[in-house]
Amino acid sequence: MNSKDNREQELLLFLSKNQDYVTSEDLAEILRTSQKTVYRLIKKINDKSQFDSLIVSEKGRGYKLDYEKFINDQKNNHSSKGDSFSPDERRKRIMEELLLSSPKALKIHQLYNDYYVGDSVIFSDEQVIGDELKKFDLILERKNRTLAVIGAEANIRKAIKESNEIFNVIDIDDLKMNQELNFNQYDVLFILDQLRQIEKDLNITIPYPYNVNIFSHLYILLSRSRKNPTFVFTDQVSQEQTDRMKRDSILYEVSKSIVHRLMKYLNQTLPDIEVYFLYQYLVSSRMQGTMVTTSNLSSKVVQVTEVYIEEMSSRIGITIDNQSLFVDLANHIKPMLNRLEHKIRVTNSLLSQIKVTYDELFLNVAIVSALISETFNLPAINEDENGFITLYFAKMIETSQHQRPIKTLIMCTTGIGTSELLKAKASKKFPELDIVDLVASRNVQKFEEKYPDVELILSTIQVQGDQSSKSLLVSAMFTVDDQKRLQRKIEEIYHGR
Amino acid sequence: MVGKNLFQSYFDSHFQTKEDVYEWIAEHTSQQRLTVIDQFEEREKAGSFLIAEHVVLPHIESEEVEESQIMMFRLAKPFDWDQESTDVQLIIALVLKKDEEIGTKKKISLFMRSLADEAFIDELLHAEETTFHQKIIQFQEERS
């Protein structure tokens, strides 16, 4: 996806989040571009859409997204692929073909048979593809009107994965229905079956994006082996790495059995190194289920997680004292460190959405990630990874688990009349209250001693004499006004902590 | 009055002032009529009894009552309880015996919690006579 597409996407996302009209000035500022560009983008989006005005405008108010059309458009967009290819698509397909067959040389006229283009176009395609392949340390070799990709197997697979948009799906079940060419339905079903088998063997579930990641790894492995059964691995695995894998007997057995099934499916042998490759993907995936709870975290994982939490909490200005966030995040960090080490990249299809929705949080995570890479001497943590980490903090903030509940006493004359009523009403509306007890007013002193850490006393009666700042008088009606005052009191308490 | 039901319900009550109500309750629950009335008034000074629109919940804990009781009155004609609590149609009165046993207290708190449900209050405010009594009997039976 180039930056122009990104801008269109960003514009659509921003509008989809706003129910009201947005002026072009505001849009220009958000997209960090000129108003003119905004007009152009909107026109382009409307022209591209099958509906005449996906984005509607009104004089003096600005622009607004027709949400219903937008949703429909999104749905149809994927299925409406014509027979003609844009230059970009053509190059992608050629490159994929070359990558899958690497290191075999393919005849140029056969490669371009379907595209009806002249020599000059082919020549310029070669330049573009060659540049693209360079990013993966691969070389495009031209010899006697043939083309071939030369390089390490791991790099070839990485290039296939990165250049194929199909692997950007979020819901793995979408793959079953995908109508894209070049995609073998039998392979898809077979691989989905293997994924289920892995989940069953390990008694876990593999969530997005790791399921898609493993899927693409297996899919590429199948395609590669079929196109070029004799490809040779130049990659080496050290004895130490192999030993480490063998000690992890559970995952090792699973990847051995999956590779075995692949061999049967392909009816050909695969080198041992495939077991190691698949094993790396499994270790680098987050698994939900029994495995996670029993897995011990290494001290490095704990340290990295702690730095994330400490740095983020000082940056966003909230105290994070939350065990569940730590466990969640650490269980994400653990496979992430593995991914960094083995250069496995997971695509985050939600990235643009995360950036728009949690822009500040995302920026802070990026800063902390850079700091962590430096401190722990790790490879750079990319945007996709930062996007995932952002979600952990976003979730914590949105569910406001970052504040521990306020220990509260409820008081009335009897400790059973209006206080019971108030408890039912207040706990429904204010989940942040932890109501520890109901007390009769004459006992309040005693209860304050019993619960020294109580932070709030909600009372339906005016107490004479000892009136600590902790208490708040509300009516048994628990009116809107009472609720507002309680809300303020809660904020006061949070603030004073 | 030993062995009386914890829950009592009265339909078409002809109270016209809160003094009437206190007087009646005191008479039916205690030998020390004046003390009980006094306790209600003292409690009310500390905080209003209004718990929902048209509904008041006068309640006290007292050494002077022999049995804890919850008495529900649906009024024949609404009246103004005080300046803030106008047009009262339903009175739920609780007298709690001092040092009541825990079992009874639990029943009372269960009932009190149900009053937080606006739909339940609404039913009590609008039910026909038989349904009104049933709502409360049901409570007595189900929860005892």
What does this structure look like?
Chain B: Pfam families: PTS_EIIA_2. The complex is a heterodimer of chains A (497) and B (144). In chain A, α17 (323-342) packs antiparallel against α20 (383-398). In chain A, the strands form 4 sheets. A 4-stranded parallel sheet of chain A has the order 9-8-10-11, covered by helices on one side. Chain A has 497 residues and is an alpha/beta fold. Chain A is built from 23 helices and 11 strands. Chain B has 5 helices and 6 strands; from the N terminus they run βααβββββααα. Chain B is globular. With 144 residues, chain B is an alpha/beta fold. At the A-B interface, α21 of A face β2, β4 and α3 of B.
Termini distance of chain A? 46 Å
Largest sheet of chain A: 4 strands, parallel
CA-atom Rg of chain A in angstroms:
29 Å
CATH superfamily of chain B: Mannitol-specific EII, Chain A
For the largest interface in this structure, which chains are involved and how many residues does each contribute? A-B, 24 and 22 residues
Outline of chain B, from the CA principal axes? Answer: globular
Shape of chain A: globular
Structural class of chain A: alpha/beta
CATH architecture descriptor name of chain B: 3-Layer(aba) Sandwich
Helix content of chain A: 55-70%
Oligomer: heterodimer
By DSSP, the count of extended strands of chain A is 11
- Helix count of chain A? 23
